[in-house]
Amino acid sequence: MPKALTGAPSLLNVDTLASLKTALGEASLGQLVMLYQQQVSNYSAQLAACLAVKPFTPEHEQQVMRLAHQLRGESVSMGAEQLAELAKQLETLANTERATFSQLDEMFSTIRLTAAHTHSALERWCRDHLSG
Fold this sequence. Notes:
By secondary structure, this protein is mainly alpha-helical. The chain has one domain: Four Helix Bundle (Hemerythrin (Met), subunit A) (Up-down Bundle), CATH 1.20.120. It is about 75% helix and about 0% strand. It has five helices and no strands. Helix 2 (about 25-50) runs antiparallel to helix 3 (about 60-80) and helix 3 (about 60-80) runs antiparallel to helix 4 (about 80-95). The longest helix has 29 residues, at about 100-130. The N and C termini lie far apart (about 40 Å). Keywords: Phosphoprotein, Two-component regulatory system. GO terms for molecular function: protein kinase activity.
């Protein structure tokens, strides 16, 4: 199990979401949450495709690093702290010369699971805090 799950940051930073709600308004935040969830889904699909290619080359490692970096940035912006931390770890791991394909694949599996939990948590937060 990757180390991120022990002592991990919270799944969602509710202060970040509350700040976004204040700054953007409810309707815009709802749209942003939907866009974020689509982006996470797209990044996951691209990462899965990249990790499915054999042989796994340095170009694939660069692609994993880029996608993980983008996922991290968008997750930080949305308050998805745990997903952001895992994406950071994947980015760092992909940048390590000694990283094995199985390590990258295991980290990606953890990211997919955390993304699903984050999606559910965002849905609950929107139901509880946004009207409409």
